[in-house]
């Protein structure tokens, strides 16, 4: 198993660093923290500019309204048996915060705290989605100072294993901020830890109901941009607002939407032209102002337009409408990407953040062992095929390489997209004999090597095939080692 | 009415010419032509995806600029009036860098684009010649608003807003009358947008912020309020107009006037019309003031820099030379004192050292002579000793003189060192190199007059001594009955006589030795006095020679330095006068510029209400 090799290498490096820095209490503390972090759930931070939809997306991912807690503090969402929140500030000892539950989520009582006083808030929340992932809601990163690395982003890169980077257009200042963070040997390696999310896509394109389709095109085009490609593993469009609405859609809201949908389109349309018209005017469905405001809050005017259209065209019960909203929001794809690219590959991401931390430590506090450790780190990175595999997995997911479906499926299987065990990679029964495994792997290796060297195939595909062939070689090496035992 | 601002503009142009700034003159001339042109150029700028193109579409009520997800305006789009809808890609050939902008722009290449391919044209994929210069797409539309003389320019949204206009094909910013900055309602104005506004308001009198997409956000009023506050905080005097292009287009499609009013566009169009109406007068005045300010700033900057440069640069070249010459004079004075002191001190040392050395040498000689005559008899050894003495003395004098010469030489070099920085620490033509003759000859060593012990004296002394012995023993023996003269008394007499002779001889030797010693002593003293006098004279002579030589050298140097000081002073004086003149000139020019600016200001002051700000 190639994954295990990287894992062992990183642990070994951490222990060696710990031994080398045993006289330095600060460094030892940091390394011990990294070792402890290695076995904790994956930390995924939601990062983005001001009003880019961070908290909404986080709510949509969790399916409950739990964010935002405090706009200027890092908010950690961990799995826990009871809803509970703890505030950490620079001046006070950690303090329990009151959690007020609401129908669709919770609110943390922050009375008595000044804005900016709290540095971290840890929220424990019973949710299945948090089993393997700790989500991190961050303050906005600013575009004001383009030279220096943003302090928020710097801290995120230090403390999180993976990023969901929210941007509206995958261009300009957003890319510059993200690009400024690629420092060091590890930073220069393949960016497997960032998914770029085109956020608030419901509002793009002048608020048309098919905005998400346009956003998908935009995402594909962005991925073809080498500048974007070098910064993230994939680009996913997602409307957090619609996704959240789909996940928490209540019966009353559905009833209201259904009532709206019953009004003839021509009659309703003038009221849906703008948010203000919908809120202030008197739509014929006889909804009171509070309900309309709640709907606006939940769906936005574009969302209401979309929802009424959906109800009219067949989603005539709450469950169907909710599912369709989630589907149209792109949330499903985002979660799938999150699971396949982050959660399933968490050992790669954990290794990556440990390596980043070690590298930063070596650069900040050079000691007698620095040279050796840096060399070991670079060797580890150079041999880490996992990053290439992660990249290929992402590329296979969004189909940008142009493999046909069958080949794509095989490639995904071989690079570990369906499981890391040799049998799972080779797609044969788990109780297969070593000889059989060997034969299948050798055959696959030969086939993909052929593929990689075929001049009649487009260059991106040949590169992908190279990665697959390399994975097969890794498998063969592992099998040989198993045979020797 | 137009006359006043035209006069002011012509004044500005003249000033540019006076200052020899062809580039500014060109700009002012362009501005003049542009201000006389009655059309109002409206530039629409902003970050990408803020709805710029949609805004333009909504203003003219036609879907001319392509909008939608990820559709990006690549070429600037210029909308002007035409009887029949048309579209053309206009491309200027690349001008070679370094060539000054010609008075008449080079011929442009115009490629007509079918109206159904406008989207591709704006996207930059159609109608553009490869390798050509910057291009823009020009769209003609039959619209009343455009017919009234308005030209709309939809700029591509740049990530870097400040770079917009730098080399833009229509030299957009320089020619725009009104700039609309587009920002959408889903968020507040960003820092870089505010920066761009500040930049714009410095060069354009009419800048407005258009907040689009109010239909999407229920709380757009709150956003608008916040944006107005941001503008006020940043000190940007730009009005903010919230609009919804979607509502406007819908209203146009359905002919709904209430909806149109709700879209916010009537306010925007009224603003643009007001600007259009105000262009020949108020706007032109404001533009003149801005032009005057830009020009005056541009012209004053080098002058001011020169002025401060001059004030700070007291150390101009002539002044620096003067100061250096003064320093030289001081240095020479110090040098003169230094070498004189050195010479005097060293000479005093030399004289005392030489004398001491001579004394030491003669003393040693004397001691050796003394030792020699302690035992030797001058009668026997005199000649040898005298010769040795003579030789030793001559040798001592020579050694002493050699040392004197060496020391003088060393002193001369030592003093010459003081002149090292002047390059010629020359030594005097040296008169002491050859061992100089003594002033007076040393007196001959006279043979001292020493008593010899003659035979007669010896006999006499022997007789005297033997008499006593004979008588003493004879008398005593007579008592024993022996005769007076008997062998015993004769023996004793002989004994006594012998002893007397020996004693006498010894005494005489002592006396002789003492006499000789005294004589030698006297001689050596004489010698010492003579030689030391000579040495002293020689040293004095050397001192005089050195003094004269170096004094002459100092005089020479002083003359040269004083000469250079005088010339430096003259140069500095003329330089100061020239600088004074230049300063007065610059100040006058500055005053003239200030007047020019004042004059331009009065163009607007004549009309107290410059541009009614929008509520």
Descriptors for this entry?
heterodimer; A: 485 residues; alpha/beta; Rossmann fold; 22 helices; globular; B: 615 residues; 2 domains; 9-stranded mixed β-sheet; 15 helices; disordered C terminus
Care to describe what's here?
The complex is a heterodimer of chains A (485) and B (615). With 485 residues, chain A is of the alpha/beta class. Chain A folds into 3 domains: 43-239 and 332-342, Rossmann fold (3-Layer(aba) Sandwich); 246-325, no CATH class; 401-484. In chain A, 55% of the residues lie in helices and 12% in strands. Chain A has 22 helices and 11 strands. In chain A, strand 3 (84-89) and strand 4 form a beta hairpin. The two termini of chain A are 15 Å apart. Chain B is of the alpha/beta class. Chain B has 2 domains: 40-292, Rossmann fold (3-Layer(aba) Sandwich); 318-452 and 499-590, no CATH class. Chain B has 15 helices and 9 strands. Chain B has helices spanning 2-18, 22-36, 52-60, 118-122, 144-147, 172-175, 191-203, 220-234, 245-254, 257-263, 265-312, 317-375, 378-417, 455-479, 487-605; strands at residues 40-46, 77-81, 86-91, 109-112, 135-141, 150-154, 178-184, 206-212, 240-242. Chain B has a 9-stranded mixed sheet, with helices on both faces. In chain B, helix 3 runs parallel beside helix 9, helix 9 packs antiparallel against helix 10 and helix 12 runs antiparallel to helix 15. The two termini of chain B are 28 Å apart.
